[in-house]
Design brief:
Layout lengths: L1 H21 L2 E16 L15 E17 L2 E13 L30 E10 L6 E10 L12 E12 L5 E8 L21 E7 L2 E3 L2 E12 L26 E12 L5 E14 L10 E12 L6 E9 L54 E14 L2 E12 L26 E12 L4 E13 L2 H5 L6 H7 L3 E12 L1
Antiparallel strand pairs: 1-2, 1-19, 2-3, 3-4, 4-5, 5-6, 6-7, 7-8, 8-10, 9-10, 10-11, 11-12, 12-13, 13-14, 14-15, 15-16, 16-17, 17-18, 18-19
């Protein structure tokens, strides 16, 4: 044991000496979360249905640890890892893996680092010598501009990318880059063999021009993607929920583009206005069935904060996204906006559309917050950061949502694409949501979180029950209208 101790000390001294000699500073940051959650009715199917959820209680844990290797203010490298989240009792030590291990040809760049430790980010960031041009190269979190909602509804994911940003004037900057979110030509799959050819990858280019003056800022942006016919699990772009449409099939690629605007105005005393407009269009390649198909659509949101109170920030908001018009089943174009990857953060409220409450726990969180919910309008009220006592704060959300998708879309032969019950809202479906979340600062770095949420939904069981979705019979016989959650979490940020 003494020999092992001596060897360990020598190794430590060598590492410390190397750090000093190279002038390298290493900083660690972390977000470690443990939460317990009681939930019921998340699939909106009553007791007795084959796929019904009874009342469940889960304990989950997630650990993110990020290391910054800093050579100087002009150069650093970042390694960001994650273990979990998964329920206690799953896997070794009761903590589950990140993304599951690769067992076949890679589906996309997010499989990098699959296994017990998931790679979230690994990139080099530096400033070009004698300039203010910043370059970020490697596996990183990439999101298009957004003023409201917490992130982009088009592209907000961990991907391999190269991003360059620089100021043009004191008030205008430019950001541009390239990303590869999918590539089926993989050498690290656990089974032998790889795909080859020009259709195995997805290439994305994008640019944004932030314009900032006193009292407001506005950021126009654009993106273009060429997604190969075998780029996702060998099946092509239409294998992803963000591109799937009524006329899509395996072996199809996509040419897609997006444009939009994110704006924030603070020039008005005690008021803050946030607004976004996103538009996208995708056209299928290698079409084998009737019509060119594809997807096109938009999402618009606007929010108004009143900032004149010290104990809270009231907010009202409205959002609208285009929905299916019913004609797409005849070879036309899907009317929902296409999207890249799995947008992770865009949400309103903190339940149905997703939540940013650490571990998550939304109705649709397994597929991303916007991927399966496009085609609705919603309006709501939030009371943010209610602070009546030191170290104790609350958030309250109330919203109403109604679908903009034509019910006829559900009757497509062979089953409608990406139209999950309850997540996909038709013009016959609506819901009310109310949630209340509380945070108590035990220490500056340690927070106790208590959250509750309730959804009263009015989904048309006759429309869904007579449709071609796989669980139509259960919906017709056992549909329910209520869902709730109660959770407690302990979150350590360092």
């Amino acid at each position: 044991m003494k020999k092992l101790g001596v060897l360990g000390l020598v190794a430590f001294l060598l590492i410390a000496t190397a750090s000093v000699s190279f002038g390298l500073e290493v900083k660690a940051r972390g977000y470690w979360w443990i939460e317990a959650q009681l939930k019921q009715g998340w699939d909106f199917l009553g007791k007795g249905a084959a796929t019904a959820e009874d009342k469940t209680f889960n304990l989950e844990q997630k650990m993110r640890t990020q290391f910054h290797f800093i050579a100087s203010e002009n150069l650093r490298a970042v390694l960001d890892t994650q273990i979990g989240s998964a329920n206690w009792g799953n896997g070794l030590f009761g903590v589950g893996a990140g993304r599951s291990a690769v067992t076949s040809v890679s589906s996309n760049a997010n499989n990098a680092g699959s296994g017990n430790i998931m790679l979230r980010q690994g990139y080099i960031e530096y400033r070009w010598p004698s300039t203010v041009t910043n370059i970020k190269l490697g596996f990183q979190t990439l999101t298009l501009p957004a003023a409201f909602g917490g992130g982009s509804a088009i592209f907000d994911d961990q991907v391999a990318a190269a991003v360059v940003s620089a100021p043009i004037t004191d008030n205008v900057s430019i950001l541009a880059g390239y990303a590869r979110p999918y590539d089926s030509n993989s050498a690290y799959a656990t089974t032998a063999g790889t795909l080859s050819g020009s259709g195995t990858s997805a290439d994305v280019v994008f640019a944004a021009v932030p314009v900032s003056f006193k009292g407001y800022n506005i950021t126009p942006f654009a993106a273009y993607a060429n997604v190969g016919s075998t780029s996702v699990n060998g099946n092509g772009a239409a294998a992803t929920a963000g591109f799937a449409g009524p006329n899509s099939s395996a072996g199809q690629g996509v040419r897609a583009y997006w444009g939009g605007l994110a704006a924030t105005v603070t020039a008005l005393d005690n008021f803050k206005v946030m607004a976004d407009f996103n538009y996208g269009k995708a056209t299928y390649n290698n079409v084998t069935t009737g019509g060119n198909g594809g997807r096109q659509g938009f999402l618009f949101d606007v929010a108004l904060d009143y900032t004149g109170l010290s104990m809270m920030t009231p907010e009202i908001f409205f959002t609208y996204s285009s929905g299916e018009n019913g004609n797409s089943t005849k070879g036309g174009t899907s009317e929902r906006m296409p999207m890249l990857g799995t947008p992770q953060n865009w949400t309103i409220g903190s339940f149905f559309f997703g939540e940013r409450l650490e571990l998550g726990g939304s109705i649709n969180n397994t597929a991303g917050y916007t991927t399966n919910t496009l085609g609705y309008w919603a309006a709501g009220l939030s009371l943010k950061n209610i602070t009546l006592m030191d170290k104790l704060s609350h958030d309250f959300n109330l919203l109403y949502a109604k679908g903009t998708n034509d019910k006829n879309y559900l009757y497509e032969s062979g089953g409608p694409k990406n139209a999950n019950y309850a997540g996909f809202l038709t013009t016959k479906d609506s819901l009310w949501e109310v949630d209340f979340n509380t945070r108590y600062k035990i220490y500056d770095e340690l927070t106790l979180l208590v959250y509750t949420g309730y959804i009263h939904a009015d989904f048309d069981k006759d429309v869904w029950g007579d449709s071609s979705v796989t669980n139509a019979a259960d919906i017709k016989n056992f549909s329910s209208s209520n869902a709730y959650k109660v959770g407690v979490g302990l979150n350590y940020f360092f």
